[in-house]
Automatic annotation (TrEMBL):
The lineage of its organism: Eukaryota, Metazoa, Chordata, Craniata, Vertebrata. The keyword Iron does not apply. Keywords: Coiled coil, Metal-binding, Zinc, Zinc-finger. Residues 352-541 form the B30.2/SPRY domain. GO terms for molecular function: zinc ion binding. PROSITE patterns: B302_SPRY. This is B30.2/SPRY domain-containing protein. It comes from the Eukaryota.
């Protein structure tokens, strides 16, 4: 009893009617700690005394409305121990008198996890909630199904004073971890729990209480973190978001303004080039008109002179008259010939900036590329079609196909099934595995037979080809080749063609970087065309 008395600490509080008074939490632990607790004084905090023992903070509530205070009967003292339970029983007054004299009610005691209610010789009776008195930090109780707690019985009371084993009639003093139930010593020694891990009810209850306390601390820290986030982090984001939005808006305006200015300058330059070219052609046409009008007049004069000679001179005069100088003058006037100088040069509107802006815009606005497929009827015997939509080069042995007018019989070429007469079209090719390939566009009138340039991609006027051989890249059309300088070999190549606008662009789909662009005029429907001389290439969907 003396040991129990040393563990009980009480605090004087005014006599109150717990059911009618309005309470507020105190700012200090009422359990009589001799050392300040760690952290804020909130229900459920664990602090350490100078004696080195752990205990749970218990807080009394100070009445805010003294008009509602009534005295509490001294024969029914209120014990508050760790949870939101009120305890009464015999022997309390003896403990109180030995602990401290003239104790006023209500009061609170400190529950030490290492000690149980049995140590204090208390018996549970009339368990009832006292949430008006103390805010309970241990709201979550152990599961009744796991602890085999009888319905209507407090988990604290069941674990503190075990019941009786239905099989052996002994007290339930052990807890079986495997079966999650209370057992007696007979169940452990001779029953079904012989090989199971067990522990005393007191130790198991202590473990659960410690877990609950730890959970309370975690919840308190989590709550504090949320409150700090609400009070500090979120309000601080508001001005940051506003400033970032302003900066983003200014950046957008500045960049678009810069782009507009560049586009306006480029537009003005190109329009001036067009106007200059138009004036040049018009001036040439005017000059040619004046020249040929004058020549026509001279020829008409010579002709009239010769007609007069025929009609007015006799034979002798005609023989002796010198008229050869006039005929020589007529022979000096040549026939008119077609000249490119009298045609508008479309290359005057070539602009790398305009081409890239146009291609980038089309690529960004293009939702999907064309679904292009290989035309197996045109496939060279040096190529094979795979199920993964790839075109493979047969290095060792040519494949035997049924010959036909559409099949390439010498060069490793293959057309696509699709043909585009007008509009803007785009498709992508995976060239990662190959170091020797060709891809581009051609008219379907391209020759299919023989080894001549008429059937060789890029060596005739009906095909426009981007090719790679080892580390060399180039663009070819009608046997004219342009070297394309690239920092690295692209894994994918996209082909973009504007048939009506006469624009052909080869680009890298990953970075939207234009590899090469070409301006021309298409006079017939075009089809994608491919050639492979190393490994394989494949079409992307």
């Amino acid at each position: 009893m003396g040991e129990a008395q040393e563990e009980v600490r009480t605090c004087h509080q005014p006599q109150t009617n717990l059911s009618s008074a309005n309470f507020q939490a105190t700012s200090a632990c009422v359990t009589g700690c001799r050392a300040p607790p760690r952290g804020s004084l909130l229900p459920g905090n664990r602090c350490r005394e100078q004696t080195g023992r752990n205990h749970i903070h218990i807080f009394l509530q100070q009445p805010t409305e003294m008009s509602h205070l009534d005295s509490v009967p001294t024969e029914s003292p209120v014990w508050v121990i760790t949870g939101s339970q009120s305890w009464t029983g015999t022997g309390q007054m003896d403990i109180l008198q030995t602990a401290e004299k003239d104790i006023k009610f209500p009061f609170a005691v400190e529950w030490i996890p290492d000690e149980q209610m049995a140590t204090l010789s208390l018996e549970p009776s009339g368990v009832e909630k006292t949430t008006d008195f103390i805010e309970n930090p241990f709201e979550e109780q152990p599961s009744p199904t796991k602890l085999q707690v009888q319905e209507g019985t407090s988990p604290c009371a069941q674990s503190s004073i075990p019941g009786t084993c239905n099989d052996h009639g002994h007290h339930l003093s052990l807890f079986c971890y495997q079966d999650h139930k209370l057992i007696c010593h007979q169940c452990k020694s001779h029953g079904t729990c012989q090989s199971h891990k067990t522990n005393s009810v007191e130790e198991r209850a202590t473990q659960l209480r410690n877990k609950i306390v730890d959970q309370c601390e975690k919840l308190q820290l989590q709550t504090a973190g949320i409150e700090k986030y609400l009070t500090d982090a979120l309000p601080a984001k508001i001005p940051h978001v506003a400033s970032t939005a302003r900066a983003s808006s200014e950046m957008i305006i500045q960049r678009l303004t810069f782009i507009r200015n560049v586009c306006d300058n480029e537009e003005q330059r190109l329009l001036e080039e067009v106007h200059t070219e138009e004036e040049r052609v018009q001036q040439g046409i005017s000059t040619q008109q004046a020249h040929w009008i004058e020549s026509s007049k001279k020829l008409s004069g010579i002709r009239n002179y010769l007609v007069d000679m025929l009609t007015k001179m006799d034979d002798i005069s005609l023989i002796f008259f010198l008229f050869l100088h006039r005929t020589e003058e007529a022979e000096g006037i040549l026939e008119p010939e077609e000249s490119n100088k009298l045609n508008f040069n479309i290359n005057c509107v070539q602009s790398p900036l305009l081409n890239r802006l146009w291609a980038s815009t089309v690529l960004c606005l293009t939702t999907a590329c064309e679904e292009v497929t290989f035309d197996e009827k045109s496939m060279s015997p040096l190529l094979a079609f795979a199920e993964d939509n790839s075109l493979k080069f047969l290095q060792k042995k040519a494949k035997i196909y049924q010959d036909g007018p559409e099949r390439f019989d010498h060069w490793p070429n293959c057309l696509a099934n699709e043909s585009f007469p007008k509009g803007i079209h785009c498709w992508k090719v995976n060239v990662e595995k190959s170091c020797a390939y060709k891809l581009g566009i051609t008219y379907r009138s391209i020759a299919r037979k023989g080894a001549s340039n008429d059937a060789r991609l890029g060596f005739n006027p009906v095909s426009w080809i981007f090719s790679r051989y080892d580390k060399d890249f180039r663009f070819s059309h009608n046997s004219h080749h342009e070297v394309v300088e690239l920092l690295k070999s692209p894994k994918h190549i996209g082909v973009l063609v504007d048939i009506d606008g006469g624009e052909l662009v080869f680009f890298d789909p990953g970075s939207c970087v234009i590899l090469h662009s070409h301006k021309t005029k298409f006079t017939a429907p075009i089809s994608p065309v491919f050639a492979v001389a190393d490994e394989s290439i494949s079409l992307e969907k």
